[in-house]
Design goal:
Blueprint lengths: L4 H5 L38 E3 L12 E7 L5 E5 L3 E4 L3 E10 L15 H8 L6 E11 L4 E2 L3 E4 L3 E3 L3 E2 L8 E8 L4 E6 L3 E3 L4 E10 L10 H6 L2 H4 L1 E3 L4 E5 L19 E3 L6 E2 L10 E3 L5 E12 L5 E5 L4 E2 L9 E10 H18 L23 H12 L3 H10 L1 E4 L9 E4 L9 E3 L4 E6 L3 E6 L22 E9 L8 E3 L16 E4 L4 E9 L3 E7 L11 E5 L8 H29 L21 H26 L4 H28 L1
Parallel strand pairs: 8-16, 17-27
Antiparallel strand pairs: 1-4, 2-3, 2-5, 5-6, 7-10, 9-13, 11-12, 11-14, 14-15, 14-16, 18-22, 19-20, 20-21, 20-23, 23-26, 23-27, 24-25, 28-29, 29-32, 30-33, 31-32, 33-34
Helix pairs in contact: 8-10, 9-10
C-alpha cells in the first residue's frame, strides 16, 4: 500500500508503518519477545476479544477501524472501536486499518468479506489506506464437563466426565475437589483423579491459568475469586458434582464399563438400539456370609446428556428405545448391576410404604394411588425405574442417589405431605447395586440420504416401449426408483429434477409419485425419456431437509438392444458345424476300423450322403418344439411379450437342432 505524495506534501500526519495492537480478554499480559511491541494476552479464553492501535492518523477525514478474520480467511467482523465481543474458540487474525474515505480511489475496507479482498484493496494503486497486522490470536476454552453429576464407589474418584479444553500449551490446567463446606479436600490434580474421601457430596472444579502468574487456592472462595484480569486464570463454568459412597459389606456388584467408541444412531434405527456389545460384563453379587450368594443382573438406563432426564430404560435384553429423543440429542447410557434381593426388598418396601402407609387425613387418594402400586415384585429393575420415571419424574441424579447412596426421593404430586426422602439402608434392606462410572454416549441424527435404487434397468417390466427400433431392450421411457432416508411424516417434499421432464406409466408427462413408507424412508417413482439425464434436489421443511442437501444424479438411460437375430444365426451355425462334424468323425472312425462303408460312407467318396431316419427325426422335432414352447413361456412370464426375432430364430435353428439330436441317436445306436 502506498500513500499519495500530495498527502505528505500537505503536511498531514504520515501514518506509522506498523500499528501496535493490544488484544485482551479482560486484561493485558506482558509483551512477547516473538512479536516486539505487541502485547500477549490470556488467549485461551472463549470471551471478549478487543484490539486497539496507537500512532495512527486521527486528523479528519481519516478514520480508524479494526477487523478480525478466521482461519479460513473470512472477515468475521469490522468494528471502529476494536471490540468484537465473545468469539467462539478458534484461531484468528487481528487487523487495523487507517484510511481516507474521501480519497479519489476508494479505500474503505469495511465492506470486504475475505482476507483476499483486503489484499486486493491494499495492492490497488494510489489507494489511501494503511494496514497493520495480521496479529494471530488463539481463542480457546477452559476444561469442559460433559455431565453435571456422577456417583463413585471406588477407592479413587476419577472424573471421567472431565474433557480437557483446548488451551495455550504454556498454560496449566488443574482440578480441585471441594466438599460441601467449601474446603478443598483434593488437588491440585492434573488428571482429575482424587483419593476417595469420606461418604458425602463433593464438587470438582477445573482451573486454567498462566504459570507466570501463580495462583493461591486454599478453599472454594479462592477458586471463585480467580479472574482473568488479576491472575490470567479462569475456573470452568458448571463444576461437576461427585457423590462418594461405599458399598455394603458383602456387596461386590460391579457394572461393566463401555468398551466401544461412541457412535451416531440414525433416527430410523433408534427404536431398537442394541446395547449388548457396548459394555463389559458385570461381575460380583451379594454374599450374606451364610453361604447365600445373589449374583448380579444387568439393566441399562439412558439419559439426556444436556438435561439429565431419563430417555428410556432397557431390560437384560439390552434393547432400548431412543426414538423419542429429538434429533441432535446426545443420549448417554449407563449399565446397572444389581441383585434380585435388592429388587425384591426395595419394591416390596415401597409398595407397602406408598400404598398403605403414606395416606393423609383429608379426602382424596393415598400418595401411592396416583400411579405406583404394583402389588407384585418386578422381574427386572428396568420396569421399576421406568415406573419411577413416568410417575415421579426421576432423573439421572435421583437414579444415582438411589443406586449408590441407598436413598430414594419420592415427590408428592398432591403437595399435601411433601416429598418423601427414604433411606433404604436405614430400613435394613439387602441393598446391592452399581452403575458404570462412564456412560456410553450416542448422538441421535436424522441421517438423511438419497440414492437411485433402480437405475436404467433394461429388464424392468415397468419400462414403457417399444422404442423407435421395436427391438428387445429398446424403450421410449425408462422406469427409475429413488429412495430418500429422512425423518418420517413429511408430506411437503419439493422435487427439482433440474428442468428434466418426468412421465407416468402411460408415457404421459406427469410429476413423479412419492410415498412415505412410514419407516423413515420415502420412495420416488418416475419415468424418464431415453437419454434424459437429471439431477434431483429433494427438500422438505417438515423433514428438516434443506434445498441442496439431498442431491442425486440419474437417468441417461440408453436403449440396451440385444442383437437377437445375430445370436440365433450364431447358434444355427454352431448346430450345423456340430452335425457335420459328428458325421465326419463317425465316418472316419468306421473307416479306420476296417469296416468299409457299411454304416456311413466316407465323405471323400463320390457317394457321400448324410444319415437320415424320418421316424427318429419326427420324434426329435416334437422334442424340439416342446423345449421351444417352454422357453417362450418363460420369456413371456419375465417380459410379458414374445419377440418376433425369437420366432424367426427358432424356425431356422429348430430343425437343425432336431437333426443333430436325431443324428446323435443314430450314431449311438450303430455303435451298439
Amino acid at each position: 500500500m502506498i500513500f499519495k505524495d500530495k498527502i505528505v506534501r500537505s503536511g498531514i500526519f504520515s501514518l506509522i508503518a506498523m500499528l501496535i495492537m493490544n488484544v485482551a480478554a479482560f486484561g493485558q499480559g506482558p509483551a512477547t519477545a516473538a512479536n516486539p511491541g505487541l502485547l500477549g494476552p490470556c488467549t485461551y479464553l472463549s470471551d471478549q476479544v478487543t484490539v486497539s492501535g496507537i500512532d495512527f492518523n486521527a486528523v479528519a477525514p481519516y478514520l480508524q477501524t479494526y477487523a478480525i478474520s478466521d482461519a479460513a480467511g473470512n472477515i468475521v467482523a469490522f468494528d471502529p472501536a476494536g471490540n468484537f465481543g465473545a468469539v467462539p474458540p478458534g484461531t484468528y487474525d487481528l487487523w487495523a486499518f487507517n484510511y481516507d474515505p474521501t480519497a479519489a480511489v476508494p479505500s474503505d475496507p469495511t465492506g470486504l468479506t475475505t482476507v483476499a479482498d483486503v489484499m486486493t484493496l491494499l495492492g490497488t494503486a494510489d489507494v489511501c489506506i494503511e494496514a497493520a497486522g495480521p496479529y494471530s490470536v488463539d481463542v480457546c476454552d477452559v476444561a469442559l464437563f460433559t455431565d453435571d453429576s456422577f456417583c463413585d464407589t471406588n477407592a479413587t474418584i476419577a472424573v471421567v466426565q472431565a474433557v480437557p479444553g483446548t488451551f495455550n500449551v504454556n498454560y496449566t490446567q488443574e482440578y480441585y475437589l471441594v466438599d460441601a463446606t467449601g474446603a478443598i479436600v483434593g488437588g491440585p490434580s492434573t488428571n482429575a483423579q482424587f483419593t476417595t474421601p469420606a461418604i458425602g457430596n463433593y464438587t470438582v472444579y477445573a482451573v486454567n491459568y498462566d504459570p507466570a502468574n501463580p495462583i493461591t487456592v486454599t478453599n472454594q472462595a479462592d477458586l471463585d475469586a480467580l479472574t482473568v484480569a488479576a491472575d490470567c486464570a479462569e475456573v470452568a463454568s458448571g463444576p461437576i458434582e461427585v457423590i462418594s459412597c461405599a458399598p455394603m459389606a458383602g456387596c461386590t456388584a460391579l457394572a461393566g464399563e463401555p468398551i466401544l467408541t461412541p457412535e451416531t444412531v440414525c433416527l430410523s434405527d433408534a427404536g431398537a438400539f442394541d446395547l449388548s456389545t457396548k459394555f463389559g460384563a458385570a461381575s460380583g453379587g451379594y454374599d450374606d456370609g451364610a453361604g447365600n450368594f445373589d449374583a448380579v443382573n444387568v439393566n441399562y438406563v439412558a439419559v439426556d446428556q444436556a438435561t439429565g432426564e431419563i430417555l428410556g430404560v432397557a431390560t437384560s435384553a439390552a434393547m432400548i428405545d431412543l426414538s423419542g429423543a429429538p434429533v441432535g440429542t446426545v443420549a448417554c447410557v449407563y449399565q446397572l448391576a444389581y441383585t434380585q434381593a435388592l429388587l425384591d426388598d426395595v419394591t416390596g418396601f415401597l409398595d407397602n410404604l406408598l400404598c398403605n402407609t403414606l395416606c393423609v387425613p383429608v379426602v382424596g387418594p393415598c400418595l401411592g394411588d396416583v400411579g405406583y402400586c404394583p402389588g407384585v415384585t418386578p422381574a427386572e429393575l428396568a420396569p421399576f425405574l421406568d415406573l419411577l420415571n413416568q410417575f415421579f419424574g426421576f432423573n439421572e441424579t435421583q437414579i444415582c442417589n438411589f443406586l449408590d447412596n441407598q436413598i430414594i426421593t419420592i415427590p408428592d404430586p398432591t403437595g399435601l405431605i411433601g416429598d418423601q426422602s427414604i433411606d433404604l439402608a436405614a430400613n435394613g434392606l439387602d441393598f446391592c447395586a452399581d452403575k458404570s462410572n462412564a456412560p456410553y454416549c450416542v448422538t441421535i441424527e436424522a441421517c438423511v440420504d438419497i440414492a437411485v435404487t433402480d437405475p436404467c434397468n433394461c429388464t424392468s417390466p415397468n419400462n414403457v416401449g417399444p422404442g423407435a427400433t421395436g427391438l428387445e431392450g429398446d424403450f421410449d421411457f425408462f422406469y427409475e426408483e429413488i429412495t430418500i432416508t429422512a425423518p418420517a411424516g413429511a408430506s411437503d417434499w419439493v422435487l427439482d429434477f433440474g428442468g428434466v421432464a418426468t412421465y407416468d406409466a402411460a408415457g404421459v408427462a406427469a410429476p413423479p409419485m412419492i410415498t412415505d413408507n412410514m419407516d423413515g424412508t420415502y420412495t420416488i417413482v418416475a419415468y424418464f425419456a431415453a437419454g434424459d439425464a437429471y439431477t434431483l434436489d429433494a427438500s422438505s421443511v417438515m423433514a428438516g431437509v434443506a434445498a441442496g442437501s439431498l442431491i442425486v444424479n440419474g437417468g441417461g438411460c440408453t436403449p440396451c438392444v440385444i442383437p437377437t437375430l445375430s445370436e440365433w444365426g450364431l447358434m444355427t451355425l454352431a448346430l450345423l458345424l456340430m452335425a457335420f462334424g459328428s458325421v465326419t468323425i463317425a465316418a472316419k472312425q468306421v473307416s479306420l476300423a476296417g469296416v468299409g462303408t457299411r454304416n456311413i460312407p466316407l465323405p471323400t467318396g463320390s457317394n457321400f450322403s448324410l444319415p437320415f431316419n424320418a421316424v427318429i427325426f419326427r420324434k426329435a422335432m416334437y422334442l424340439t418344439m416342446f423345449i421351444a414352447l417352454i422357453g417362450f413361456a418363460i420369456c413371456f412370464a419375465l417380459y410379458s411379450e414374445i419377440f418376433g426375432s425369437d420366432l424367426i430364430g427358432v424356425t431356422i435353428a429348430g430343425p437343425v437342432f432336431a437333426y443333430l439330436i436325431h443324428l446323435l441317436y443314430i450314431l449311438e445306436k450303430n455303435k451298439k
